[in-house]
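step=predict obj=Galactose-1-phosphate uridylyltransferase n=366
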Amino acid sequence: MYSHKLLKPDGRKLTLYSRYPITSQLEATSPSHEPVQANPHLRWHPLRGEWVAYASHRQGRTFMPPPEYNPLAPTTNPKFPTELPQGKYDVAVFDNRFPSMSLTANNPPETIVETLPANGACEVVVFTQNASASLSSLELAHLDLLLEVWGDRTRELGANPQIQYVLPFENKGVEVGVTLHHPHGQIYAYPFVPPVPARMLAMQQEYYQEHRRGLLQDLIQQEIADNQRIIYQDEDAIAFVPVCARYPYEVWIAPKQPVSSFMELNPAQRWGLAKALKTVTLKYDGLWNRPFPYLMAWFGAPTDGLAHPEAHLHAQFYPPYRTSERLKYLAGTELAAGMFANDALPEEKAKELQAVAVNLEMPVSV
C-alpha cells in the first residue's frame, strides 16, 4: 500500500492511498478555503446513561447535488474545486467538512445536564474515483486495499489519547439517508466506546473470561456446523446471515480466526474478507437486480492500548428492505423498547441470498 498526505486549503487533512506509487506533484483541493469552524459538544442523557452529540453546523451540509457538482469526484475545473485532486490513486480519506465531533472542540455550553466538548474525529473515505461504482463492482485487489486503509486510519486515529473507539461504516442508498451517491463511507472516532459496541464487547469479555475462547469465534463454528445460513466461506473468512438476525437480510462478515482489529489481519485473512465483502454486495445487488441499500459497520477492539483477546473484528450489514418493495421501519418495539421484531426467519432470507449466483472475477457493469 502506498499513501500520500496533503493539507487542504481550508486546513483539513487529506490522505491518498493506492496500490501503486503516487506522484508527489498532487495539490490538495477543497470546495471552500474557509477554515472549518465546527465546535460540537456532548450532553449527558441521564435516563439512558449515554452521550448525545450536538452539531448544529451540519444543517448546511451538502445534500443531493447534481452529478456535475459531485464534491467527491476529482476536480476537473480549478474554478470549481471538489474535495479531491486529479491524479492516479485508488482511495482517498479526508476530514469531514461537517463533523459531528472535532478534536479541537472546546467550551461546551452549560445546561441542566453534564456537557463535554465532542472531542472526536469524523473522516470521509472515498472508495474510488469512479462515481458510478460500488463495493460490488470494485476489483478484489481494490477491496483488499480498502481493508488496509481502514486499518491505517484506525491505527492513526486510535493513536490519539483522546480517542477510545474507531468505527468505519458505509451508508448506501437514499433509504438510509445518503445525500451523496458517489461510493464512499465514513469513519467516526469517539472519545468513549459508544453504547452498541460497548454492549457487544461486554458480552464478548464475559464469555471469554468463562471459556477462554471468543464468543463470535464459537458462534461462527456453530454456524458452519449448522450450515443453513452461510453466504460465503473459505479457509480464512466467512459471511453468513446470523441465526439471531434483527433485519431480514442482515449479514455478518468476519475472519474465521479472531483478530481484534484491522491491524492484526494477515494478508490471507484480508484477501478472504475482500472476497466475502464482494460476494455479499454482489448478492445484494443481484437479489432484485438493482442497487441494494444498507448500513455496513465494522466492529473491533477499543483503541485504549490494552489487549482485547475477547474482541473479534467483523462487519454487520443492516439492509432496510424486508421484501423487494417493503421497507422494515424501526418503530415502537425497536426504537421505544430496544427489542427488534423480525418478520422473516434468517434461514428463509439466507436461502434467497444463497441462490444469487456471483462471479468474483467478472467485471461488473456500473
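step=describe
The first strand starts at residue 2 and ends at 7.
step=end
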